[in-house]
Design brief:
By secondary structure, the protein is of the alpha+beta class. 28% of the residues lie in helices and 31% in strands. The chain has 2 domains: 4-110, Alpha-Beta Plaits; 116-231, Alpha-Beta Plaits, CATH 3.30.70.
Length: 232
């Protein structure tokens, strides 16, 4: 049973102006680069498996949605794996990329009741090699949300027992149109959405919601998608 997650709060300074739609990709490259300094992290980075971490967008967000060269911003990286957190915290200041990590602080958060999950970075759901769109149906998105976090949770803790029902009883779309995000530099585009989930009070549902808080909802969490906050 997941009882706590670990969070690295980092401050960064960008080497150039970066639009908000490209900043998740820039941070992902820095985090990935930090893993080259440790053989276990390097192997983990190249392994095709759930990564069990997610990170936020930097803040504060500028009014024109362009992060400025030379200014200081903060971002959060969460994970269930304490060893991973300790190593990434150690190597982030050495990482090379479009920003310099100036400082990092590690905190631990224990399981608490969650009433709602609200995504701060878009969720990405792939349907037949295309990003989910409203015309694909809210039912399909709900199913993917539940199945994805159930798989992550059971990969982390195979003893978890969950009934055949969703861990949330209501979903609200928070954006009027798809959110366009770049990744792999500017070579690829993802269309994401922001949502709010009302979480069921059952212990198993709370466990899935807490895991989602720690590692992100749906896909491409290693690129910073699906990062949530909890409302209690």
């Amino acid at each position: 049973m997941v009882q706590c997650y670990h969070e690295i709060l980092s401050t960064v300074r960008f080497h150039e102006d970066i639009p908000a739609r490209e900043v998740q990709s820039a941070l992902a490259e820095i985090i990935n680069n930090s893993m080259i300094y440790d053989e276990q992290l390097k192997d983990f980075h190249h392994r095709n498996t759930f990564k069990f971490y997610v990170f936020s967008a930097p803040y504060p967000l500028e009014a024109d949605r362009i992060y400025r060269k030379g200014r200081i911003y903060c971002f959060h990286l969460r994970t269930l794996d304490l060893k991973f957190a300790l190593k990434v915290k150690q190597y982030l200041p050495k990482a090379k990329g479009l920003a310099k990590v100036i400082s990092s602080e590690l905190k631990n958060y224990k399981l608490k009741t969650i009433e709602e999950l609200v995504t701060l970075t878009p969720i990405v759901c792939t349907i037949d090699n295309r990003c989910w769109m409203p015309e694909n149906g809210i039912g399909l998105l709900s199913e993917r949300l539940h199945v994805n976090i159930l798989k992550k949770s059971k990969t982390w803790d195979a003893s978890l027992s969950v009934p055949e029902e969703f861990f949330f009883n209501h979903i609200t779309m928070l954006n009027q149109k798809p959110i366009v995000m770049s990744y792999r530099g500017k070579r690829a585009i993802l269309l994401g959405h922001k949502i709010r989930l009302r979480v069921k009070p059952n212990p198993w549902a709370q466990q899935l919601a807490f895991t989602a808080l720690a590692v992100g909802l749906l896909e491409k969490n290693g690129l910073g998608f699906g990062y949530c906050i909890a409302r209690r």
